[in-house]
Amino acid sequence: xxxxxxxxxxxxxxxxxxxxxxxxxxxxxxxxxxxxxxxxxxxxxxxxxxxxxxxxxxxxxxxxxxxxxxxxxxxxxxxxxxxxxxxxxxxxxxxxxxxxxxxxxxxxxxxxxxxxxxxxxxxxxxxxxxxxxxxxxxxxxxxxxxxxxxxxxxxxxxxxxxxxxxxxxxxxxxxxxxxxxxxxxxxxxxxxxxxxxxxxxxxxxxxxxxxxxxxxxxxxxxxxxxxxxxxxxxxxxxxxxxxxxxxxxxxxxxxxxxxxxxxxxxxxxxxxxxxxxxxxxxxxxxxxxxxxxxxxxxxxxxxxxxxxxxxxxxxxxxxxxxxxxxxxxxxxxxxxxxxxxxxxxxxxxxxxxxxxxxxxxxxxxxxxxxxxxxxxxxxxxxxxxxxxxxxxxxxxxxxxxxxxxxxxxxxxxxxxxxxxxxxxxxxxxxxxxxxxxxxxx
Length: 441
Ligand SMILES: [Fe+2]
Ligand SMILES: [Fe+2]
Hints:
The structure is a single chain. The protein has 441 residues and is an alpha+beta fold. It contains 7 helices and 23 strands. 20% of the residues lie in helices and 26% in strands. A hairpin with a 2-residue loop joins β21 and β22. The chain is globular. One fe (ii) ion binds at residues 193-194, 230-232, 327, 373.
């Protein structure tokens, strides 16, 4: 696109030069006048188009997504290079074919063709459109963000991840969360659901919580997040517009059968395969609260087929460690706990997902399931029947007694084992530490 723009400008200059020499232009006099005026002052631009720090998202070994808020209809883009000076940078525009995507509030750009486990530097930019002659479209001079860097995942990348969950727009604990992530230097963070206070009434609500968190804007400018939606992320009219604000996975990551599973993921972060599953709402589809237009039951079933197929991929089958991420737990130690399939209250565990996904996780030696939703840290050790452990992250409150505290769950391969540490952010201590042997599958 960069080259195309230069060629286009050169073409325009030639056209204008020809007009002078022959005193006859392909342009009408009015067009010529407008073009000359544009050429004399092409840098029509408005300040302050970029309205947030970038948020890296949907990471993959060969691609990286980034989003940022904008003020006003504009085209967003990214320049990315293998050096901090951005020499030889490649430019990617907001996704769209055949037109780059324009948006008046958020720009989503994906960098593709990247090398796995490789460090890159990038900066986001945005231009508005101007029309010097009729429909002729030109970009205003770009406004640029700061330069940041990231490292792509892959089998040779760091075997390390962080998990946050149920942040619910509580900005005081959120500050503790982002500070801990920075301190741990995790290469990726799974944002394991329930990001809004309660629901997304307007698209702006999603923009605000993702790109302009009051105590942590820019926390994912150099480290990508993977969003695993929770039940609250599906509530409110604007939840249906989610994919225009938060980037789904690259379509080539899944088969045509799985085309609707845009946010499920399975990829290698070093020795660990990260698998993302979506438990959906915490009430059955027939529940009156869902308004009659949800289909989470077929959605979970579609993920069952997808999940089984992931273990046929060589890089997942051979992973020394596999961790699955879900919002609603797949197990509850209380036999009377709400399974999410009844009309009373809400799920403490998701029975359909547990019954469909649990055996696949068992059969493939998955060591750990990481969940949230309960707002209270808990560890469920593996049993003879359920070979995977489950760790449930804490909630967003600092004032609900000693048993409740926000957490960052950290997984890291150390001395050949996957070590999981649950950081209690309120009392600044380790709430639990667990270690897992390599898979024997
Ligand atoms: Fe929650
Ligand atoms: Fe939840």
